[in-house]
Amino acid sequence: MRTIIVATQNEGKVKEIKKMMEDLKVEVKTMGEVGIDIDIEENGKTFVENAIIKAETLKEYTDAIILADDSGLEIDYLNKEPGVYSARYLGKDTSYVVKNQMILDKLKGVPKEKRTARFVCAMAAAARNLPTLTTQGTIEGYIGYEAKGTNGFGYDPIFYVEAFNTSTADMSSELKNEISHRGNALRQMKEKLKELLEA
After folding, report:
1. Most CB atoms within 10 A, among 43, 57, 107, 126?
2. Which pLDDT score, from 0 to 100, does residue 199 have?
3. DSSP 87
4. Catalytic residues
């Protein structure tokens, strides 16, 4: 059985990925579980570049397949901020409660039609002696007027999806995985990995 190491310390992400990879003949592990502890400078200008940087850096430390993602929130009214800096927005150690409140404050008085936003997720899978695979998924929505829900992480409580009239933090994990940017990118990646694993 092949091992896939997810290049993140974010437990929420790992949980989502494990759930979606259940039917593949792979073992999904975190960096911590395999004892890889390195800081990678994500200096790419796009989500895809950052995902590739992470995956290709880590593949040198293991024989496993490295699955890395770079994702973030783009808010049109704020010139697509926080974008690739989503995790580091207002400082890496700043809580998302503070980050979310800051965004709500910046959009105070802005009408709904100008609050359009999207989550973007780029994924890269890399392993020694194999070409690096990439996928990208998005979900369109808008920034709500309040943080709502406890079933997500990061910017989920302020990101609303029109069709469901609620935030992604207020959705079930199943629904979120079905429609989310990470779910979209992961489904595409799963198909590519399936071909790789069956080859």
Report:
1. 126
2. 62
3. G
4. 70
